[in-house]
Amino acid sequence: MANFLQQVVSGLASGGIYGSLALALALIYRSTGVLNFAQGEMATLSAFVCWALMDGGVAFWPAFAATLVLSFAGGVVVETVFVRPVERAPTLAVVILTIGLLIAINGLTTWIWGGAAKQFKGPFSTAPIDVGGVRFSKQDLGVIAVSVIVIVLVGLLFSRTKLGLGLRAAAVNPEEARLVGIRVPWMLALGWGLAAVLGAVAGVMAAPSLFLEPNMMQTVLLYAFAAAVLGGMESPVGAVVGGLLLGVLLNLLGTYVHWIGGQLRLATALAVILGVLLVRPSGLFGRAAVQRV
């Protein structure tokens, strides 16, 4: 039982990272209908920025706050400079653009910081906490806490503020949003900025557990895609829940199904994508499209 609880908590920590990145994917997909394949590389770049600030003598939390601000600005710039000029182009063209951004950002990160892995010292100790005979990692609990706080803040933004309502309106029905005075292009830019912030949280929280290197988030991005598909690509809540469920599921399967272990985790996540698409393409929290004839 103790091992089961440890695996659940560890899975929730991983799932919080998947959920944050999946939420970023869902926000952009909901507003533009495009999967941002560069989301993982943007998160990696943010993690490197945070590492560079700390390497320069800045404490973690100020560096983390500065990274979020810079990531938001970077997301707005990406949407304004690269995405907006092709927003009316076929969807395939925009997808190819995001793949190009993936390659460009990966190359930029490698050019600035090199390809060697770097140790990222996070704010949480790896020392265990004993609770009723069950030992939990402070790192896992800290990642869960940060992920929950960020996700709650995003939920409050969308449900309790005029800005959040404007973002939702611009994503759901941009034409009618324009008629009531909402600046849809600016809302879309803010959406990309917010997605970049969520990606930065995922990247910085993942970096202490992974070695910080230019390809760090590529596998995590696949898990985030699986989480978003599981929960529903158009459902922010579903993306978060899908990430948490996927993190726990992969941990439990890796522990108790020995032939999966650590080698088939990614294959299991891809199997989740395939299974959900076959059984319920809209995901657990998504709504199937209905057309009137």
Would you kindly provide a written description of the structure presented here, covering whatever features stand out?
With 293 residues, this protein is an all-alpha fold. Helix content is 71%, strand content 3%. It is built from 11 helices and 2 strands. The protein has helices spanning 2-32, 39-55, 60-83, 91-113, 138-160, 162-172, 174-179, 184-206, 218-231, 236-256, 265-279, and strands at 128-131, 134-137. A two-stranded antiparallel ribbon has the order 1-2. A hairpin with a 2-residue loop joins β1 (128-131) and β2. α2 (39-55) runs parallel beside α4. The termini are far apart. The model has no long low-confidence stretch (mean pLDDT 86).
Question: Layout of SSEs?
Answer:
Layout: H1 2-32, H2 39-55, H3 60-83, H4 91-113, E1 128-131, E2 134-137, H5 138-160, H6 162-172, H7 174-179, H8 184-206, H9 218-231, H10 236-256, H11 265-279
Antiparallel strand pairs: 1-2
Helix pairs in contact: 1-5, 1-8, 1-9, 1-10, 2-3, 2-4, 2-8, 3-8, 5-6, 5-8, 6-8, 9-10, 9-11
Index terms:
293 residues, mainly alpha, 11 helices, 2 strands
Let me know the number of strands.
2
User: Which strands sit side by side, in order, in the main sheet?
Assistant: 1-2
Q: What portion of residues is helical?
A: over 70%
Roughly what fraction of the amino acids lie in strands?
under 5%
Backbone shape: globular
| N-C termini distance | 54 Å
Q: SSE order in H/E notation?
A: HHHHEEHHHHHHH
Query: What would the average pLDDT be, to the nearest integer?
Result: 86
Structural class: mainly alpha
CA-atom Rg in angstroms: 19 Å
Largest sheet: 2 strands, antiparallel
The residue ranges in which pLDDT falls below 50 over 5 or more consecutive positions are none
Number of helices: 11
